[in-house]
Amino acid sequence: MGQLDGQTGLVFGVANKRSIAWGIAQALHDAGMRLAFTYQGERLKETVVELAASLDPTYLVLPCDVTSDDDIAAVYSAVGEAFGGGLNTLVHSVAFAPKESFAGLFVDTARADFAAALDISAYSLVALARAAAPLMEARGGGSVITMTYLGGERVVPKYNLMGVAKAALESAVTYIAFDLGPRNIRVNAISAGPVRTLAGRSIPGFPKMEEYVRTNAPLRRNVDIEDIGHLATFLAGPGGRNISGETIHLDGGYHVMGMGVPVE
C-alpha cells in the first residue's frame, strides 16, 4: 500500500522524460496516487500521452494553454468528472522566458517578453490554484506544489528574466497559501539546484553552473528529477500536512553558501 493510495493529482509541465514534472509524476504514481496530465500544444501531445500511458493507460491527458482561462476551465471540468469531483494535489511545473532573454542583459528585457514570462511562469500558478481549490476543498484539503530556483532570490548571471519571474512565483506562493489555508490547502515551492532538463541545459553556461554547485554545495552533489519527486511526494502526503507558504531548497545545501572555494 502506498502512502498516497486513493488520492488524485493533476500534473502540469511534462514535456519529455527528463522533465521535472515527469520525475514528480513517477514518484506520486509509485506512492499510489491516480494522475491526470496536461500538455502544451500539439507538438508535445504524443510524448505526454506515451509517458502517461507508461504509468497507466487509463490516465487522462488533456491540452492546456495556461494563458487561456477557457482551457483551464475545460481541464478542471474534465478532471473533476474523472476524479469524482475531487482533487488532492496540483503540480505546477510551468515556466517560460524567450531564449534570447538568457543571452543578453536583464535591463534590455522587452516589455512584451516581461509580460509573457510573468504570465506563464507566475500568474499561471494563481489561475491553476484558484481553479483547483473547489475540487481540493471537496476532498477536505489538498497540496499545491510548484517549482522555482535560487535565481529568484539572488542574481544568477544569464538567468535574467526568468529569475524575476521566479521571484514573483515565490511571492505568489505565500499569498496563495494565506488565501487558501483556511480551506486546508497547502501551497509550497521546491527550489531545486541545477537539473539536467532540456530547458535547463538551454541556459548559457549551464554545464559550468552545474559543476560549480556540485563542487561547492555542502553535500558535494547535484540533484535530479528523482530527488525532486521524493520531496513532492512528502509534501503531498501526511508529512507535509502542516507545511505551507514555504520555498524549500533542494540543492545539496548550496543555498547556504556565501562563498565557494574556501579562501586559504
Automatic annotation (TrEMBL):
SUPFAM superfamilies the UniProt entry points to: NAD(P)-binding Rossmann-fold domains
Family note: Belongs to the short-chain dehydrogenases/reductases (SDR) family. FabI subfamily.
Residues of the active site: Y149 (proton acceptor), Y159 (proton acceptor)
One Pfam family cited in the UniProt record for this chain: adh_short_C2
Broad class of enzyme this protein falls into: oxidoreductase
Pathway: Lipid metabolism; fatty acid biosynthesis
Protein name: Enoyl-[acyl-carrier-protein] reductase [NADH]
EC number: 1.3.1.9
Molecular function terms from GO: enoyl-[acyl-carrier-protein] reductase (NADH) activity
Residues involved in substrate binding: A97
Any one GO BP annotation for this protein: fatty acid biosynthetic process
Binding annotation for NAD(+): G13, S19, I20, Q40, D65, V66, V94, K166, V195, R196, T197, L198, A199
UniProt entry keywords in alphabetical sequence: Fatty acid biosynthesis, Fatty acid metabolism, Lipid biosynthesis, Lipid metabolism, NAD, Oxidoreductase
Catalysed reaction, written as an equation: a 2,3-saturated acyl-[ACP] + NAD(+) = a (2E)-enoyl-[ACP] + NADH + H(+)
